[in-house]
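Milestone 3.1: sequence recovery, worked example.
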């Protein structure tokens, strides 16, 4: 697949349906194939600027999204062709959309805006266009072909987050097609440089805040979890807070010499021993009001009695030792062990290693980047750093906090202290209420709860101004699908995408007038 596939024509895209497609027809979800909608224009639209969209199939839209290679290798991706395709979709629906170029060639943002009936602060949907790189030889399918196999759609971004984008856009366009009016402007921002790069949401906020100024924001985040059978919806969460992101660099030095003479002063060996020292070490469990509420909801939601008992033990533990024992049992019993381990404590992951340059030279230096995620209100990043340094004190390695360019360690720690202390988004907002209502209607047998996101989002330009920001991935995933996020054979089920689109349709319906 080329890096810059051409934008598809409006007609070819809007009338495309996939095999086994689920079409949004007549305001309900129906299987099979439906005829194109009669020509006409939305009550939201100005003068017609093209044919009205056909009944939009979120699976067909996701397949089209996945066909665009928007890999971000660290300095932004090529997102213009993808943005042009989505602009054609918005244009066809009569919704104004604007491409915002960045200083990097062909790396752009796209902003669509549905005009509301009042001056109420807008609702902004934030969905990134870039994806992490792929290891093509590790995939069982072409990662940019949108292959459907055994009821799952595969592709880089299927889960994170083109799947969510297709559900959001498909649901909104269904309202537009029905002639809906909303009580406020709805802004749909498809941003670039979320995974990495200089020109993401921070750059956009600094240069075009008037275009994205909103009263509440919804992006990626909360997971929709299944019971042990991997299918039945169990827990529907909306994240109101991200973990605190920071990096540590481990470095070891040694004698550089000819590789024919191995010596005990090897930088690589020293670094390897340090990695072994902290590989299976766990930071202390830290429960906060946000995570206590989450684990309480999980105890209520699960039909797995041993897991429920472990969760009750965790929440009732009176000592740190008791919490640690109960937490280990929760992770052991959980169908989502990696997720729940991450929500319990500061995590550290070995991500980038650099050592050596020639096979006949033992190098004098070896370095390792460790990505860390702290629990806001739990263990402070500065305390985690001190614990790592203490643990590696006898390993002859240096541990450095990787701050911003020109930033001292203490300044970086103060900045992280501020992020750590930042309160979660308020639950008193029309958006949070709408998410809860949509969850109750779409997943009536599941439990709904706010949560902590174990990863990070692009919400800070808004939340730093006090604007509430939340996250959902609007489809039920099992543990294998969750682990494939940023990994190989990333996928979600077609049925979950269908139900997630219905969830988003009901959410947006809470903002309809009349």
């Amino acid at each position: 697949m080329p890096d810059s596939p051409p934008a598809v024509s409006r007609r070819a895209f809007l009338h495309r349906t996939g095999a086994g497609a689920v079409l949004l027809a007549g305001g309900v979800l129906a299987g099979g194939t439906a005829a194109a909608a009669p020509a006409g224009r939305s009550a939201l639209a100005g003068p017609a600027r093209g044919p009205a969209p056909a009944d939009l199939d979120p699976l067909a839209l996701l397949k089209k999204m996945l066909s665009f290679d928007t890999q971000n290798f660290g300095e932004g991706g090529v997102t213009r062709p993808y943005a042009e395709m989505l602009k054609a979709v918005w244009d066809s629906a009569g919704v104004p959309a604007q491409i915002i170029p960045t200083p990097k060639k062909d790396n752009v943002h796209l902003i669509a805006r549905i005009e509301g009936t009042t001056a109420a602060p807008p609702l902004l949907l934030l969905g990134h266009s870039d994806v992490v790189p792929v290891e093509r030889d590790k995939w069982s399918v072409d990662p940019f072909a949108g292959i459907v196999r055994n009821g799952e759609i595969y592709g880089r971004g299927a889960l994170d987050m083109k799947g969510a984008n297709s559900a959001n856009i498909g649901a909104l366009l269904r309202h537009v097609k029905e002639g809906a009016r909303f009580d406020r402007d709805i802004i749909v921002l498809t941003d670039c440089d979320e995974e990495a790069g200089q020109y993401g949401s921070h750059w956009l906020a600094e240069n075009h805040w008037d275009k994205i100024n909103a009263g509440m924001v919804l992006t990626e985040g909360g997971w929709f979890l299944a019971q042990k059978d991997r299918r039945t919806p169990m827990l529907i969460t909306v994240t109101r807070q991200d973990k605190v992101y920071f990096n540590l660099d481990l470095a070891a030095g040694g004698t550089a010499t000819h590789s024919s003479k191995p010596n005990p002063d090897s930088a690589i060996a020293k670094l390897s021993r340090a990695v072994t020292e902290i590989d299976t070490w766990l930071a202390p469990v830290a429960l906060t009001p946000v995570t206590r509420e989450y684990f309480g909801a999980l105890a209520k939601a699960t039909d797995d009695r041993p897991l429920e008992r472990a969760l009750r033990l965790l929440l009732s533990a009176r000592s740190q030792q008791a919490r640690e024992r109960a937490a280990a049992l929760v992770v052991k019993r959980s169908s989502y062990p990696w997720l729940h381990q991450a929500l319990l404590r500061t995590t550290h992951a070995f991500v980038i290693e650099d050592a050596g340059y020639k096979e006949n030279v033992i190098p004098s230096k070896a370095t390792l980047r460790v990505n860390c995620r702290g629990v806001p209100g739990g263990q402070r990043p500065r305390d985690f750093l001190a614990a790592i340094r203490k643990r590696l004190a006898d390993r002859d390695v240096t541990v450095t906090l990787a701050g911003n360019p020109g930033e001292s360690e203490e300044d970086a720690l103060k900045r992280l202290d501020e992020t750590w202390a930042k309160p979660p988004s308020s639950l008193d907002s029309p958006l949070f209420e709408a998410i809860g209502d949509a969850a109750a209607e779409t997943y009536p047998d599941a439990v709904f709860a706010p949560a902590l996101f174990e990863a990070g989002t692009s919400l800070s330009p808004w939340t730093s101004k006090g604007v509430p920001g939340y996250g959902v991935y609007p489809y039920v995933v099992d543990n294998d699908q969750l682990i494939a996020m940023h990994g190989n054979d990333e996928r979600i089920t077609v049925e979950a995408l269908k139900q997630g689109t219905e969830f988003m349709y009901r959410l947006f319906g809470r903002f309809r007038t009349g």
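The longest helix spans residues 162-177. The mean pLDDT is 90.
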